[in-house]
């Protein structure tokens, strides 16, 4: 085991610490303790062991007077924390043993923790993985975000249709945070700007307080801990006593209710800008609090604003915090007296922006009127920024245009570096959304291919594979993931492959038990677990996966004695509540599952499973159990993907297109260990230009035509025959994501999968080579890239030669 800066503790001693919290923090004795009490006591006992390295890291950072990284994100999709903290402290076994001695089941307690679901999908989870890597690498950093009272909605199905209910992670105490009432800042909205006396004065109409809650983020081996600071909205005046005394109770609590609205709930859209005023207020709320906080810290350490960029690196996680540019310029000008040019250049040297999507509907553009009414001073400052940009660069690209404030252009102009999240995506960013700005600011756009933390996404979620890897190549791989390459040498060794397959089978059995217990669903662990888990979106093409499934069903029924590979199609994912087509796709998957799973002729060969409420914790059970990873987006649409990395790391080969990071995964694992299909991004553009490409594709594929007919005619919705006619017509009229054009290629690729899967040794070898060759996709490598190419920040963990 690695050398721990954390003093080792015996299970007995740690058990005593848990009991101390049960008694003194929960006020319970063992005989009356509920699962919640044990979970709280365990969490607090683990948290106690994070505080010293946390203080130590803060002290070292202060003394080093070096650079801090500030990661601004509207989303942090954290999931559960007990396992994560126990593993990073090297205390998983100790905790398990301590609880066992107290007659408690560690796994049961871990499963009782609600997910911190403060994010929608890829962008939010990436932020959480990055926080783990920043701490593991010992890079001084703060994550800044919003402490939503309600995270991403709970999904449940009623007759196969998605229903949403409010998520309630804070219904119980959140053990990992420290409230910081003393750290709070006024956040202003609306009103007007008085330009009379030379320097403009903003007279806001509304003000709320942003109050901090800190969660320590401990890294691998407990060597370093950074802070995740989440802001909660509080009223200036909590309670309007006068209204209360007048008996107007609503008015009395209005200030509280109004203020809290700002941090009340996460917007559940992950690709479509809402344009809602509250969303803009949320974005400004947390960004302003964060900028005020980092400036106060810098100045309190005696910093000179001229050197701000030598001590502060601010990373914008997409355009959601893009107001950070104008806000920093506002404070540097209006509160610290810098002239506009120096304020802009100082700010730009601090700021960098990551783009996570090319989808036009996801690029934030605020109606200028709305923007000006909420942020009148910032509107003025953006005009100044635009003027300087046009003058200095000779560019013709406007930030404010056609009555809209374009947040992508604003973030680009105010950043010294802009990056995409995979090699293909970064090229497409240069060639499409920012082609003009790329010409005007050559070299500003770079690539930083995404990554995932191997602590959560292998070490923690896959104990059987972890054990095999430890025995095969030693235990240093969790923070040096490219050591996994050492496994390749064993990929021809039958004994190793048997153990590798045994690990996979153990995870498949665990999933089968979990699904049986939770949903009463019985899985055949010998079947291929074919998994597509991600947000529901047309570009991710869950529909194409389902069409292939129905085509397979048809083929099996026509040839029941064929040597079919038994398959379980597992879907997981939420649709944004307002995304009608995505919700129709969910309904169709569930309707199809109902019919096919009940078909006596095929049910031993084909099953469709769609567990409700996919989230981070469910991914940690599904991914280790997967045989096949579905990464089938229309080429050019998935900026990177990160699920693709998690599956490959856990020994699940990919069936996929040349899209996002699939391209780099295929390069790493070898084309022979990847099931490629479909049009390339360039071919997609070309095909889209052809007339009736969808109808012609269907005419050319009787297999597809039949499936579409079945759906359209109500085979899967006998009680509502026309339920999907609109969906199918839409596909024939404007199949924007080329489901029809890639269908045959996808179907053939799936048959290639069948063939290889039937040869167990060949399949397991392919699976093992995937695990061995994706070490590069560690978020430690990604963060090292950001630190080298964007932040020029360095680790403060002396021993590490990062
Ligand atoms: C304004 C509404 C909104 C909210 C979130 C977003 C995100 C950018 C969507 C997102 O999560 N993008 C995903 O980011 C991942 C991390 O980089 C990538 O791996 C995924 O490919 C990308 O879809 C766009 C628009």
TrEMBL record:
Pfam families: Phosphorylase. It catalyses: [(1->4)-alpha-D-glucosyl](n) + phosphate = [(1->4)-alpha-D-glucosyl](n-1) + alpha-D-glucose 1-phosphate. Its cofactor is pyridoxal 5'-phosphate. InterPro entries: Glycg_phsphrylas, Glyco_trans_35, Pyridoxal_P_attach_site. It is an enzyme of class 2 (transferase). Keywords: Carbohydrate metabolism, Glycosyltransferase, Pyridoxal phosphate, Transferase. The keyword Isomerase does not apply. Transmembrane segments: none annotated. Its EC number is 2.4.1.1. Belongs to the glycogen phosphorylase family. Allosteric enzyme that catalyzes the rate-limiting step in glycogen catabolism, the phosphorolytic cleavage of glycogen to produce glucose-1-phosphate, and plays a central role in maintaining cellular and organismal glucose homeostasis. NCBIfam families: P_ylase (TIGR02093). This is Alpha-1,4 glucan phosphorylase. It comes from Roseobacter sinensis.
